[in-house]
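S.,

Sequence below, as promised.
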Amino acid sequence: FPHVLCVSVSVSLFVSIETRVQIQESVRGKDVFVIQTVSKDVNTTIMEMLITVYACRTSCARSITGVLPYFPYSKQCKMRKRGSIVTKLMASMMCKAGLTHLITMDLHQKEIQGFFNIPVDNLRASPFLLQYIQEEIPDYRNAVIVAKSPSSAKSFVAAAETLKERGAYKIFVMATHGILSSDAPRFIEESAIDEVVVTNTIPHELQKLQCPKIKTVDISMILAEAIRRIHNGESMSYLFRNIAVDD
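The prediction came back faster than expected:
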């Protein structure tokens, strides 16, 4: 984008166990966008982001927008016996660190937005997945399973077997976040499923090497447009124009 610069950030380990972040350029009076992809080591990812946001805050950035395609710990958004609502803790820490806006995609529950005291734009992947269905799965004899989370793969593998027995020609599984357990590629490869289609909100290159049935839909375009609109002070409603009220 015009007038948008990538700032160099140094992330390292201090005394071998602590995360150290240093902003290499001045961000005073700037609108900062911190883009953080959740890695396998989710706790390190969180600390890197919190320290980066806090470093920008103490460096007098005008605004700090966090861009997390997948929001970590979003499944722990309900109270359980002798447990806690960890998602609320995550929201509190991010706001306390200095975040002024959050862009994410397909939160586990929409109500998570209420945990924040800053604006949250919860983008949707459904238009991209629907486009994939229209372009790649035209035959009405094909079956599509919509999985909230494909992590273990066991549940939709069993569903695929049932669909195959009842005459489905090809079976596709669709999900936003490619949260796949270590066993998931093997389960998928040995199953009746033809394709598991996920977006690139979470890196899953290794799983794709283990299982060619895993396909990726790119959602970077909508994240880039969200950043552009926030930076220019434009309305975000255009990005939700094809989203149903109950989605």
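The helical segments are 42-58, 86-97, 126-136, 154-165, 184-189, 205-210, 220-232.

Coffee later?
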